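USER: If only I could read C-alpha cells as easily as an amino acid sequence. It would mean a lot if you studied the pair and described how this chain folds. Here is the record:
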Amino acid sequence: MEAFSGGSSASSTRLSVEQLSAREFQVFELIGLGLSTSKIARRLSLSVKTVNAHRVQIKKKLHIKTAPELISFAARWLTSRGGEDRAGQP
C-alpha cells in the first residue's frame, strides 16, 4: 500500500491496475469515489451480484484482502491520478 510514495512501487501499482478489465476499472473508480455496491450497479446498469463479482476479481488482481483496503486503495489511487471527476464515464 506504500505505492503512492513513488519509485518502483508506484510503477508496479500502475501495472496492477492496468491488468483490470475495462469494466473492472470502471467499478474500481466508482469504489474510489465512495459509491456503494448498489449505487455502482445502478450507475453501470449491472446487477449487484455482478458488481460483487467484479469486486472479488479486482481484489484478486490487486492482491487486496478486505473491502476497506480496496476502498482506501481505490480512493488514494484516484486522488493520485486527479481523476475524481471522470469515474464511470465511457
